[in-house]
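Annotated sample (chain length 706).
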Amino acid sequence: MPYRLFCLLMAAVGIQAQQTPSINDTQIINLTPGLATQCGFSFKFDPMGNAMFFASLQNCFSQNMAVASGYKMTAVVFSPSKNVMNVDEVQRKGYAIANTPTRLVLRSPHNAEETYLQNVAGVPMRVLSTSTFFEQKWLVTRVDATAVCPTPEAVAFTPEVITWYMPKHIDPLFSSDAFTMLEVYMGIDAKRLDTEEMAARNYSVLVTEAHIIVEIPVGAVGGNFKSHIQDDQYFVTYTIEPMLELLWIEEVAHENTSYKVLFPITTPPMARPPQVRNLPPSVTGNCDQENFHITVDYRNQEPFFVVLVGKRLLNHEFAQQYLTEGDTDFTITLPFSSPDAVFELVHSSVRSRLDVALLNPYNNMTIKYFSLACSFLKTLTECFSNGTMTALAVKVESAPGLNPGQLTLSDPACGPTYSDDRFAYFHFTVNSCGTTRKFINNVMLYENEISLPDELEVKLNATTSSEEEYQLKVSCYYVANITRTLAFLTRPRDNEPFAETGTGRLMVRMRLAQDASYNTFHQEEDYPVVTYLRQPLHFEVELTTSSDPKVALVLDHCWATLNEDRDSRPRWNLIINGCENPEDPYRVVFHPVEADARVRFPPHVKRFEAYMFSFAGDAVEPSGQVFVHCDVVICDASSPTGGPCSGQCVNQDNLKRGRSCFMLFRPWQTITELIGSLSLSTGQRHVKDFFEERHVYVSSGYILWV
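Output written by the structure step:
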């Protein structure tokens, strides 16, 4: 029979540890029920008949280091009887009392003489209340401690539900009525359960003004049935050991109090006929291109089992979303990417596996186990006719420490466009990221590989030597030559297209702003403007004479020359077909235009930023003049027709940096004069030497790009 006991653990600083029984390696002590209760041991059998032995860390035979603080435990007073005992008397009565440098431990049988019953909020509770005295010369220290445990009368039974009532305000443990309950947790067999696990087992915890009410279905997972024969009749009892953990704070003391109780509960005998079972239910499964389909056939029997899908119990919410029920069977349909499935890496390819177990609800024994693994190649890799590929890399079971966000394609510079703790998604073209191509008859095969960079692979293997190397091959097939048949119909137009005719004049101007705000601009008398190499120049091109909101100005081409002739050579392109020159180490940057007091129609204005540059070449000597030219296109903003009217390019950050030196000169300064004010690095010294041999002047009114 089980032996119930109190275990009281109190903090006590500076108290000398008491002598504990000592044993050597060969000594055997008969652990009687009384000694087990006194010393902090318990013993029971699990539903399968396995012996389970429990020992407190503060048991009588654990070796605690004594600390000499000068205090000596002298007496224990039990309330409300006021019985006073010394330490030897306490131990002879079956109690255990000991202390460590920081704890006082008092252990008592559940129905000991000095315990008493107290009605707390209508619930009978058993209480042990003590005062322990410690002496040191002329000083006496008292430690008051109280333990409160539920009694069987705190539980109500029906054939379907066990209900346990726990007072919310446990009077013997409180010094006032004003308190705040901070935490309430439930567990089974001393293990705390989260909300999802409680819901899967149909447990419930209700906190009211006076009570904390725990409800457990009879036969729920976590407990077990036991058979009994009485007067030639068959009975069963159901046993479960729930746990409650409470944390509260009293407004007067301003200290947190933690309370934990483990409460074994056994139902009264219930007359139930023994269940006669045939062979277990069958489990089968198959896959389509996206889902697992698991069918459980229980063959006209009562479904005497619970279902574990992956690591999750099949509860009501799970069933509503994924389960289809028949007369004698049910089917679970789960996507391959479900968190209940695991991924396996097999010969550089990935497959998804779903494990399903049928468990006995009384003892959690496995009735049937089934595992289904399938490949989902179409879902993991997609190939598009425009020459792009997408690939989904997954975290596999054999590499639990893998961070999918660190995976790359064959080119380590090509990382995922999206990743989380289970997946990494890649999007790339077949002529990039190290993709290889080979021809097989009339088919082009493009292949790439997803893996960790070498340095990360080495680091991962160093920390988790059991993990396998992650390598996932992705491929796309394209037919090199193929003929398609296209059918189409024609019909005559209802009317001929026509255009409205009229006359008008469109004026476009280009100006240089003084800064990136584009609020003020250089006037004609400001030129030439003095600046330095790599300094930004902010240009604005504006359609000035139109008030039509349906038209838009687009920069088609912009370039620089050494004279006024727009077709002269040399020529350097700044904007090509509406986009930055890809060969320019200092690409132009387009700036958005917002409506304000000056700009009424933003589509009529385009702004771009360019950096000072130099015409370089042995055959051409630097000139004192540089001209910037632009071709623009006026488009119908409501119906762009492609080409330049499809829109201006989006800004792109330019990370390249050159070593050239650029300046804007005053007309009266020579190159030699300006060079004297510059500090050039060794790599720029040849620029200084070149310019010192020549005196180049700047004509007024022109920007000099050297």
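Annotation: The first helix runs from residue 33 to 39.
Annotation: The chain is about 10% helix and 40% strand.
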